[in-house]
Design a protein that fits this description.
This protein is α+β, with helices and mostly antiparallel strands and 102 residues long. It folds into 2 domains: 3-38; 46-100. Helix content is 53%, strand content 15%. The chain has 3 helices and 3 strands. A 3-stranded antiparallel beta sheet has the order 2-1-3, with no helix packed on it. Helix 1 (41-64) packs antiparallel against helix 2 and helix 2 (68-81) runs antiparallel to helix 3 (85-100). The longest helix has 24 residues, at 41-64. The protein is elongated. The relative contact order is 0.13. Bound molecules: zinc ion. Zinc ion (ZN) is lined by residues 8, 10-11, 13, 28, 30-31, 33.
């Protein structure tokens, strides 16, 4: 069975647990709060390149259409799943653009 990483929604504690697909979401061992499944480090490494390319493409589409706010919102959402400097930089670039146009 695969090892998953879970993060507590309440206190932010991150822990690993071996789990089957149908097992219920574990509770936080620290505070008993609800958790959400994060991408395990191994799966993350393999998926990150493809995922990042997909995110970049979608982001650039938004920018090309002039939907800067949507682009920023999308980048923020994507950063929750893919931790990557590139996404953060893309987001900041467009946020600056938004500020200048104000
Ligand atoms: Zn907790």
């Amino acid at each position: 069975m695969p090892i998953y990483e879970f993060g507590c929604k309440k206190c932010g504690y991150v822990f690993e647990k071996i789990q089957g697909m149908n097992d219920p979401q574990p509770l936080c061992p620290k505070c008993g709060g609800e958790t959400r499944r994060l991408i395990s480090p191994v799966a993350f490494k393999m998926a990150s390149d493809t995922a990042l390319k997909r995110v970049e493409k979608r982001f650039n589409d938004y920018v090309r259409w002039g939907k800067y706010k949507d682009a920023v919102r999308f980048a923020k959402k994507a950063s929750e799943y893919i931790k990557h400097d590139k996404i953060k930089k893309m987001q900041e670039r467009v946020e600056r653009k938004l500020e200048q146009s104000r």
